[in-house]
C-alpha cells in the first residue's frame, strides 16, 4: 500500500550530540559502521525543555500538568512501561497519578471511570495503557477519552485530525520517529521511506507522519502479507527504513540500502535467565550497512515517553493558558 500526499496512587536545534558512531565493524574496506541515533540523549534534551516549561507555567500561577494513567490488569510489559512514564512525569514536575484496576473489571466500569476523568477540570491528560483485557474493546475505550485530554492521540477525533493534518495530539511513537530522523540532519523530502508494520496505533501513524508536510517522504507500507521477495525489493530501495512489527531480526543486512537511515520500533522480550530486549533489526549486521541506526533499547522507546510528556504539557497549557498547537 502506498500513501500519498480502583485506587489512585500518586506516583530547537537538533544536532550531532545525539549521534554516536557505532563500534567499527568493516564490511568493505570503503565502509565504516553506522552512526548510532541516541534516543536517550535526545529524550533528555526534550525533557529538560519541558521541565522549564512546567516551571514557567507554575511561576505564572497555573496548576502543574496532571496526567492520569489507567492500567487494567497486571501485564508485565505494561507495568514496566507505566512505571517509566510515571517516573518521567514526576521528574518534570508533572503530577502523575495511576489508577490500577483488576483485569476482571467490567468494560462499563472503565467507561464510567474515564467519563468522570473527562469531567474533572483538574485532570489535563488521560492515558489508558494498552493492551486491554480481551473482554474489552480497545477502540471503544480509546474513543471515550475526551480528545483534548487524549495524549496518546488514539481517539477517533484525534486520529481523524491527524490524518487531515489539523492541529491535534499526534500518536507518540510517530512523533518520536520523526524527531529521531530529523536529528540525523538527513533530507527526508522526496526520499523513499518504507514502514514495516501497519498497526493502527504505531505503523500506520508513522507512515502518515513520514509523508506529512515537514517530512514529505514518499512512503510505502509493508505488512505480514507482503511477499518476502517484494519486501526485500522495497527495503533495499528505502532511504528511510522503519520497522514496527515485533518480529526479532526481521530486517537483515542484505535488505538494507547502503547509507540508509534505519529506525527500529520493534520490541520483543526474549525469555531466559537474563531477559533480553531486542528489536526488529539485526543490529550487528545492519549497522555495517546503514548510515544511521537506532538501538533497542535506548532508541525509539525513551523518545516515545518524552513525546507523551510533551503532549501532556501541551494539554495542560491548552486547558489553562489557551495556547499551544
UniProtKB/TrEMBL annotation:
Q: What cellular-component terms does GO give this entry?
A: mitochondrion
Q: What is its EC number?
A: 3.5.4.9
| Subunit organization | Homodimer.
Statement: the UniProt record of this protein carries the keyword Hydrolase:
yes
The record places domain Tetrahydrofolate dehydrogenase/cyclohydrolase catalytic at 37-152
- List the GO biological process terms: tetrahydrofolate interconversion
Q: Where is the Tetrahydrofolate dehydrogenase/cyclohydrolase NAD(P)-binding domain?
A: 171-319
Protein name listed in UniProt: methenyltetrahydrofolate cyclohydrolase
According to its UniProt entry, this protein's organism is Frankliniella occidentalis
| Gene name of the record | LOC113202740
Matches recorded under PANTHER family = BIFUNCTIONAL METHYLENETETRAHYDROFOLATE DEHYDROGENASE_CYCLOHYDROLASE, MITOCHONDRIAL, C-1-TETRAHYDROFOLATE SYNTHASE, CYTOPLASMIC-RELATED
Question: InterPro entries this protein is in?
Answer: Aminoacid_DH-like_N_sf, NAD(P)-bd_dom_sf, THF_DH/CycHdrlase, THF_DH/CycHdrlase_cat_dom, THF_DH/CycHdrlase_CS, THF_DH/CycHdrlase_NAD-bd_dom
Amino acid at each position: 500500500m502506498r500513501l500519498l500526499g480502583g485506587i489512585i496512587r500518586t506516583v530547537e536545534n537538533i544536532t550531532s550530540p545525539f549521534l554516536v558512531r557505532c563500534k567499527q565493524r568493516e564490511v568493505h574496506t570503503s565502509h565504516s559502521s553506522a552512526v548510532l541515533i541516541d534516543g536517550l540523549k535526545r529524550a533528555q534534551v526534550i525533557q529538560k525543555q519541558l521541565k522549564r516549561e512546567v516551571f514557567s507555567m507554575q511561576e505564572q500561577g497555573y496548576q502543574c500538568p496532571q496526567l492520569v494513567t489507567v492500567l487494567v490488569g497486571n501485564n508485565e510489559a505494561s507495568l514496566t512501561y507505566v512505571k517509566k512514564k510515571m517516573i518521567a512525569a514526576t521528574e518534570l514536575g508533572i503530577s502523575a497519578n495511576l489508577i490500577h484496576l483488576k483485569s476482571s473489571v467490567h468494560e462499563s466500569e472503565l467507561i464510567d471511570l474515564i467519563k468522570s476523568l473527562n469531567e474533572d477540570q483538574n485532570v489535563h491528560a488521560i492515558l489508558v495503557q494498552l493492551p486491554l483485557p480481551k473482554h474489552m474493546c480497545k477502540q471503544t475505550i480509546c474513543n471515550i477519552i475526551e480528545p483534548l485530554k487524549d495524549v496518546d492521540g488514539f481517539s477517533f477525533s484525534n486520529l481523524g485530525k491527524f490524518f487531515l493534518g489539523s492541529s491535534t495530539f499526534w500518536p507518540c511513537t510517530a512523533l518520536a520517529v520523526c524527531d529521531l530522523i530529523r536529528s540525523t540532519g538527513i533530507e527526508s523530502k522526496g526520499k523513499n521511506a518504507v514502514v514495516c508494520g501497519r498497526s493502527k496505533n504505531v505503523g500506520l501513524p508513522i507512515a502518515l507522519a513520514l509523508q506529512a508536510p515537514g517530512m514529505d517522504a514518499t512512503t510505502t507500507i509493508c505488512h505480514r502479507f507482503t511477499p518476502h521477495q517484494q519486501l526485500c525489493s522495497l527495503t533495499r530501495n528505502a532511504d528511510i527504513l522503519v520497522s514496527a512489527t515485533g518480529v526479532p531480526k526481521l530486517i537483515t543486512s542484505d535488505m538494507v540500502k547502503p547509507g540508509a537511515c534505519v529506525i527500529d520500533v520493534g520490541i520483543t522480550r526474549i525469555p531466559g535467565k537474563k531477559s533480553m530486549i531486542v528489536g526488529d533489526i539485526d543490529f550487528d549486521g545492519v549497522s555495517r550497512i546503514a548510515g544511521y541506526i537506532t538501538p533497542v533499547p535506548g532508541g525509539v522507546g525513551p523518545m516515545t515517553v518524552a513525546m507523551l510528556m510533551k503532549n501532556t504539557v501541551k494539554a495542560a497549557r491548552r486547558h489553562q493558558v489557551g495556547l499551544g498547537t
